[in-house]
Amino acid sequence: MPRMLDVSDDVRAEIGNEEADRLLAGENAPGSYDCTSCRTQGDSELERTSTVLFVGDETAVLAFAHATCIPSQVVQVAEDQLQGAVRSITGGGPDLPSAEEFGGSPGQAVLGITSGLVLIDGQLFPALVVEPTGPVARPGSAGTTDEFLQLVTEQGFRPVTDMSDVPAPLPGWSVLLAMGQLHAVLQPSATGGNPVSWWQAHQPLQVTDGWRTAANKSSTVLVYAAPAGSIGQQPREDLLRNALERAAARGVLAAAAMPLAGT
Fold first, then answer.
1. C-alpha dihedral over 118, 122, 123, 129, to 10 degrees?
2. Angle at Cα 25 formed by Cα 21 and Cα 29, nearest 5°?
3. Which residue in 130, 135, 243, 228 sits closest to 184, CA to CA?
4. Residue 153, phi then psi, degrees to nearest 5
5. Which sign does the torsion angle of CA 7, 60, 44, 219 carry?
6. pLDDT digits (tens, 9 = 90+) for 176-218
7. Minimal CA–CA distance to 207: which of 79, 119, 133, 114?
8. What is the share, in percent, of the chain residues with pLDDT greater than 70?
9. Beta carbons within 8 Å of 179's beta carbon, 6+ residues apart
10. pLDDT at residue 90 in the model
């Protein structure tokens, strides 16, 4: 039976016309599926469904999602992460904490990433808080002055003075999720090509169901950035909000709103 599938040009180019046509005809596509974005059940016979192809260095995994959640697309995933992604599809992925540290910042320092929900004007927004574990000097500088806040504002983040305001969008940037896990914060390429990673997880970071639901609802993630020692690893979202408000009052907080990319 034909399926209500969306197969993007990028996905078709990866899997080939014959396989794409078989999917559309219902030969290789499931009727019911677990949406790779919101994790609730979908039915490709009854509702528009996106084909999402996760591609590693040597292998690829085809998944399905509600078309209202995400469009059909190809998502690049590191080969060593692909098996974990397969376990995530089948519900066997590990439940990871909401904060870890990863390498990769303008000064090659280590960035801490914390996910949480922020309430603004009665609406819950998914948020990421980026804080280096130490001072970040300007690239090429021999100095040790922490210029992390200046660097992110030069890239388009705007100072936060009031946590009741929604941060302004930052064109060209996005937050990449793959199969419900946080993989990267992407920024425009200096050469005008595909976006490049500003921050990339060494291992994908699991976010909570509430965070993912809010992200799918708003299709926007608020990314806050502060110098080392400004926020800290807060165990609860109310304490995280208090720390953000203190940082804003001290003039050491910047933020940007970014669209959600991937799943």
1. -10
2. 95
3. 130
4. -70, -35
5. negative
6. 887 778 888 888 877 777 777 888 776 678 888 889 889 888 8
7. 114
8. 80
9. 36, 54, 63, 85, 88, 89, 93, 263
10. 39
Q: Higher model confidence: residue 62 or residue 38?
A: 62
Mean of per-residue pLDDT scores for the chain: 79
Dmax (CA) for the chain in angstroms is 66
Give CA–CA dist 153/156, Å, rounded. 5
DSSP for residue 24: H
State the average pLDDT over residues 147-171.
94
Token code pair at residue 234: 């807060």
- The whole-angstrom separation of Cα 138 and Cα 226 is 15
- Which parts of 11-134 are beta strand (E)? 32-34, 41-43, 49-55, 60-66, 73-76, 99-103, 110-120, 123-132
Write phi, then psi, for 245 (nearest 5 degrees): -65, -40
Number of Cβ within a 10 Å radius of residue 147: 19
User: What torsion, rounded to 10 degrees, do the Cα atoms 241, 243, 247, 248 define?
Assistant: 20
Write the DSSP symbol of residue 169.
B
Estimate the share of the chain in helix, then strand, then coil, as percent rounded to the nearest 5.
20, 35, 45
